[in-house]
Write a structure and sequence with these properties.
The structure holds 2 protein chains of 2 kinds.
Chain A (H helix, E strand, L loop, with lengths): L2 H20 L4 H21 L6 H24 L4 H4 L1 H20 L5 H20 L2 H19 L12 H16 L4 H8 L1
Chain B lengths: L22 H15 L12 H9 L11 H22 L7 H36 L9 H24 L1 H11 L6 H4 L6 H5 L4 H6 L3 H14 L21 H8 L16 H6 L24 H18 L3 H9 L19 E4 L4 H24 L5 H22 L3 H20 L2 E2 L2 E2 L2 H19 L8 E4 L2
Antiparallel strand pairs in B: 1-4, 2-3
Helix pairs in contact in B: 1-10, 2-4, 4-13, 4-15, 4-16, 5-6, 5-10, 6-13, 13-14, 15-16, 16-17, 17-18
Classes of the chains: A mainly alpha, B mainly alpha.
Chain lengths: ~190, ~475
């Protein structure tokens, strides 16, 4: 298991924890982190040297980028919406958004998988600024930083204290997910709902 | 969570860095398999852009030598079995067939086949592109185990697709056409939606990622579809343990019912075990007759409207709803909306089937015209890959006109008579005047015969009194 696999493992563990924590009260967030976690799990397998997981990892990453982040943004922006509060609804949206993303990407609109999560992160930042949530703002900034690191840092370049861009993406995203939906946020969501 | 967000430099090289067949080999292999069933272009490219790959599957190709669409062979079998079932039920005086309803079901089938000709290449194209770029491995077509596993996997995803088709308004709008008949017989199986294929492809993409070859996928999809034909009958009763494993007439009758215990159950395609596993199974009751159809009936013999009426309903609901999020939930929430309470109680004794009391001669005229439209469909399916988009659309429009006008005659609409006369005249004239009917040479005697037949139809229709008299008949 190399450093990339470890970074994906950390992301998977964070997603697993967040999934278990939010499944009951905030299923929108739970479904979103489940998608990211699935991609991370496949990433662990892929970066551990199993080439067979390469394609599924990239596919799951694409679905997560196109579906999980919009779903996360939606669930944080409108915590009382059926998409945020109903498992079924969250699953429908994830399926639909993921399918649109896959169709767009394989049809040649490859930027879709970058623009959509970017727009979702900006929406989350705007929501957190409105809510004046310090942790939320930090989480949104970390999320944007992770996307920025992924999009702007050239491959093979070491940055952020010796981390590769893959590792930076994973660690920043894990931190962002922890900050965006911390354990105490359930009561806030319940009050809002 | 890496590759998508990183610049996707590896998108065009999915086989890089892993053992096994080369990209060129696998692309060629997939195309070869697809060529057998779908007719891909003969040009083989080792590396092409995704949009080019997709375009290869969406553009008609004149050079393509395609194997015949298997539906062409299935159509005569469908017709024979439907006639046999109708004859048997007539002998038993079971009253489970109504000619206008059965013809309308078959017309739905024609329309869906025409629509599929335009959507299948795009939807299968997405599958092929995903398979090409993201598959984990390649399932061998030489392995019987792989075929069985692919069939089971397909059936599993079909279960979820079918279930969501009943639980999401947008998907229900596409699927409701199949449930709109208030009769249940083999013709109901062919009452297929024209818009469902455009929405259903997304559920099967995990199969592409798992490595199920496109040709294998197409074959198991056809097997799954054909299997679902036979459960649409009332001639077969309960089958004991088989009812607990496979989708059978008994448990599929429940799926088509609108009784309280029949709502949103038994979604399986081949295996009913998925319903038992996920808690959506319901057994047919002996003490309560199943009333078929939907709670909000179609009340029309127009297949075009049958495909669109629930979309129109959703559109009206969305227009009447305030706020863009609520409008969105009209389309993507459950049918009836998130705030809807349980469905009202259904009393089977008060059920009345839709009936326009179409006169006998008009019924048989409609059946005759449908027979001719079916012949056109078979020809269309045989030549569709040789047609340009415009030609295929024109051919489809010709058939759609016939379908609408036959439906209007069943409903005894005044405009239906004029539309049908104009259609028959135009079609007969065009067939007689044009030497090659969509690429097929027609002998002069056939052209003359068709023109004569068209004139006879027009003359006969002009003597018919078409007057609307909507009444509802009691259920038998």
């Amino acid at each position: 298991m190399n450093a990339d696999a470890v970074s994906d493992l950390v992301l998977a563990v964070v997603c697993g924890r967040q999934f278990g924590h939010h499944l009951r009260h905030r299923p929108g967030i739970a479904v979103a982190v489940a998608l990211i976690g699935l991609a991370a799990c496949l990433g662990v397998v892929h970066f551990s040297g199993f080439a067979v997981a390469s394609g599924p990892h990239r596919f799951a990453s694409l679905v997560a980028a196109c579906a999980a982040f919009p779903l996360l943004a939606w669930s944080l922006r409108w915590p009382d919406d059926p998409v945020a509060t109903q498992r079924r609804s969250a699953a429908y949206w994830a399926t639909l958004l993921g399918a649109i993303g896959v169709a767009a990407t394989v049809s040649g609109v490859e930027q879709w998988g970058q623009v959509v999560p970017g727009a979702a992160a900006i929406t989350i930042l705007w929501t957190m600024l409105h809510a004046r949530s310090r942790m939320g703002i930090l989480g949104a900034i970390l999320l944007l930083a992770s996307f920025g690191a992924a999009a702007l840092v050239p491959p093979q370049t070491l940055s952020l204290a010796g981390l590769s861009r893959v590792q930076a993406l994973h660690y920043l995203m894990a931190a962002a997910l922890l900050a965006l939906a911390p354990p105490w946020s359930r009561s806030l969501a319940t009050r809002t709902a | 969570m890496t590759t998508t967000l990183l610049r996707q430099e590896s998108v065009l090289g999915p086989c890089q860095g892993r053992p096994g067949p080369t990209h060129a080999d696998t692309v060629h292999c997939a195309q070869s398999h697809l060529r057998c069933t779908l007719g891909t272009p003969t040009r083989t490219a080792a590396r092409t852009r995704p949009d080019e790959r997709l375009a290869r599957f969406t553009q008609p190709n004149r050079q393509t030598d395609m194997r015949t669409n298997p539906i062409i062979y299935a159509i005569p079998v469908f017709i024979l079995t439907i006639v046999l079932e109708a004859w048997l039920t007539r002998r038993r005086n079971a009253g489970i067939y109504d000619l206008p309803d059965a013809v309308t079901s078959l017309q739905h089938g024609v329309l869906s086949q025409v629509a599929n000709a335009f959507t299948k290449l795009a939807t299968v194209g997405i599958y092929v592109a995903v398979y090409d770029q993201y598959r984990a491995t390649t399932w061998p077509t030489s392995s019987a185990l792989a075929w069985v596993a692919a069939l089971i996997l397909y059936d599993f995803f079909y279960y979820w697709y079918h279930r969501l088709s009943h639980e999401v308004a947008l998907l229900w709008a596409a699927h409701v056409a199949h449930h709109s008949s208030e009769y249940y017989n083999l013709s109901t199986a062919l009452r297929q939606s024209s818009t469902a294929a455009a929405l259903g492809w997304m559920f099967y993409l995990p199969m592409a990622v798992a490595g199920v070859q496109p040709a294998m996928f197409v074959v198991v999809a056809i097997i799954n579809l054909l299997y679902q034909y036979w459960p649409h009958t009332q001639l077969v009763g309960k089958l004991g343990w088989v009812d607990r494993v496979l989708v059978t007439p008994s448990n599929h009758r429940v799926h088509h019912g609108q009784n309280d215990y029949c709502l949103d159950v038994n979604y399986g395609g081949i295996l009913i075990v998925w319903d038992r596993l996920f808690g959506t199974f319901s057994e047919e009751r002996d003490d309560e007759e199943v009333c078929f159809g939907v709670r909000k009936p179609l009340v029309s013999f127009n297949p075009l409207w049958g495909n669109l009426y629930y979309y129109a309903d959703l559109w009206q609901q969305a227009r009447a709803t305030r706020g863009w999020r609520d409008k969105l939930h009209v389309w993507l929430g459950p049918p009836g909306g998130w705030r809807a309470t349980d469905a009202p109680h259904f009393d089977p004794s008060g059920f009345r089937r839709y009936d326009e009391h179409t006169p006998g001669p008009l019924r048989w005229y409609g059946a005759l015209q449908h027979g001719l439209i079916t012949l056109m469909l078979m020809h269309f399916l045989a030549v569709e890959t040789r047609l340009t988009i415009v030609q295929a659309a024109t051919y489809g429009f010709v058939m759609a006109c016939g379908i609408v006008s036959v439906g209007a005659l069943f409903e005894q609409r005044h405009w239906g008579k004029w539309l049908e006369q104009a259609r028959v005249l135009a079609l007969g004239g065009a067939f007689a005047a044009i030497p090659a009917w969509f690429g097929s040479d027609t002998p002069i005697w056939l052209r003359a015969a068709v023109a004569f037949f068209a004139l006879c139809c027009v003359a006969w229709l002009s003597r018919q009194n078409v007057a609307p008299q909507t009444r509802l008949a009691p259920a038998p």
